[in-house]
Batch of 3 targets.
Target 1
Amino acid sequence: DAGITQSPRHKVTETGTPVTLRCHQTENHRYMYWYRQDPGHGLRLIHYSYGVKDTDKGEVSDGYSVSRSKTEDFLLTLESATSSQTSVYFCAIRAGLASTDTQYFGPGTRLTVL
Amino acid sequence: AQKVTQAQTEISVVEKEDVTLDCVYETRDTTYYLFWYKQPPSGELVFLIRRNSFDEQNEISGRYSWNFQKSTSSFNFTITASQVVDSAVYFCALSEANQAGTALIFGKGTTLSVSS
């Protein structure tokens, strides 16, 4: 258990509304990630963070923004949700400073955009 | 460019059968790591193994074993004497050493169904 929680765990929202997902970790890991999981695509990186206020884009970052004001929290925001953003969102932490260290995942958030 | 291919989309077996999940990867990096994760029906992602590119020894953990072959760029996962609790989606993933902050590159997953 890497001490990662995500909230909310489930959310249904309407197209055009803003949505913020929260990832919280208790073990002071420097690197945090947001992935989305879609059928037929595996997991794909949205954004990641390498420290407080330090973030970078991933493969599928369009339509998403992130913020990290504290080590323990990494927020993912959909400024104006679209149906294509219906997905399961996973937060992960990297258990070390090396790029090849193991990533451990939170329980996921299932988001439905109607 | 890096890529992970899991050609088997779905596999169905009967309990006690052995099953092998295939994983083929592409990378230009000489230092990289390979991973397997399990996603049971409850949805969480469970880390199973991490293997570096310099260690081609097979790994065994209980009923699980992994065969890493650089010559064929494969990192296959075998479950011996499968059980119903092994039913899950299994993901193979790749991480390269030369990319700071790098994401894991995932395959699309193999869904394993074990029936009693």
Target 2
Amino acid sequence: DAKTTQPTSMDCAEGRAANLPCNHSTISGNEYVYWYRQIHSQGPQYIIHGLKNNETNEMASLIITEDRKSSTLILPHATLRDTAVYYCIVRVGGAGDGGSNYKLTFGKGTLLTVNP
Amino acid sequence: GAGVSQTPSNKVTEKGKYVELRCDPISGHTALYWYRQSLGQGPEFLIYFQGTGAADDSGLPNDRFFAVRPEGSVSTLKIQRTERGDSAVYLCASSLGLAWTDTQYFGPGTRLTVL
């Protein structure tokens, strides 16, 4: 799986949009971008994933650049409960090799702190 | 519905002892995964099961670590002759199947401390 690079930490004011960047310059054509987050003392939680089109769900939006070398996770109106470590993961999707498809390879992520 | 549960939530043991960590996946989920998370790091893959069989155990650090899932539901991670370096949070996840679109849902983890 391609390697990802994320800032170590970010701050955001409550009620404002939080924009979390991720670089994945070696991403392959069949690799998807996934985002998980981990609130303190909890297990990771799936947020969203995408291939090349922008995606939106009830939690967040995912913007992937046209060359797919970077992406941004957007939390449109951050709340204090969104304080967490956010992980950007690149993972093979579709009919892959049947083995490493299933592992999630986490980096250190970005600690997002939402301030009142 | 109920999520992935793990017991115990905390386990303190002495160096050299044997420990078992239990994971109850979401009902109906056929795939189960174990990860380990050291302080300040992201989770690291250990092993995953499809049904009763371990499909990939390449992440187990050495032969002191072993995991079973005898009936295709509950799984137990077993660690023999524990060492201080085994101290970490052990996370379990499950997914409906092994389709790449199947989301992995994580439990809260078991915090293991080896004194």
Target 3
Amino acid sequence: QKEVEQNSGPLSVPEGAIASLNCTYSDRGSQSFFWYRQYSGKSPELIMFIYSNGDKEDGRFTAQLNKASQYVSLLIRDSQPSDSATYLCAGYGGSQGNLIFGKGTKLSVKP
Amino acid sequence: DAGVIQSPRHEVTEMGQEVTLRCKPISGHNSLFWYRQTMMRGLELLIYFNNNVPIDDSGMPEDRFSAKMPNASFSTLKIQPSEPRDSAVYFCASRGTDLAQYFGPGTRLTVL
């Protein structure tokens, strides 16, 4: 059973701090990973994807992928109250055509 | 560009009734996914289509659920008969060549 694991949280950080969200996956064949943000009552919204080992930066967001450790993370710099949401990590299996989603980490940014 | 469109946004029905959820994917996307989300189980894949053909329906809970994609711009998810445990938010998502899935706004289904 291919799985993506996330700490459900809640993760609470003060405004302006760095929020670190982590994800592990079981399928060594997984090649590409996605981070989605979901506000309460809304649909998941794609914020980043990463295919290669290392870091990928987009504004205040940095995704990190370590295939040897089967580990994906998302860093949010200068966290804002508007970043408070549930963050879903997802990865494609080797031959699967569908994304495997983690259960999500709830982030709360306190003013 | 228009995103994924779903209708209705909210549906309240009584147990035993037929429910039909509709989805229009992003134009040019050739894969479509139906998900169900609940607090207890999170986001679950029900079925997905590539080029209008069902590829994996192993997530469909039981025979009461069926899905069709008659053409590249329309898909339906039908529940007949509906039960209270089917109450959830149902999302449709489509995927293009960038491998990312883009979600519609969802349909919140309540079965009384």
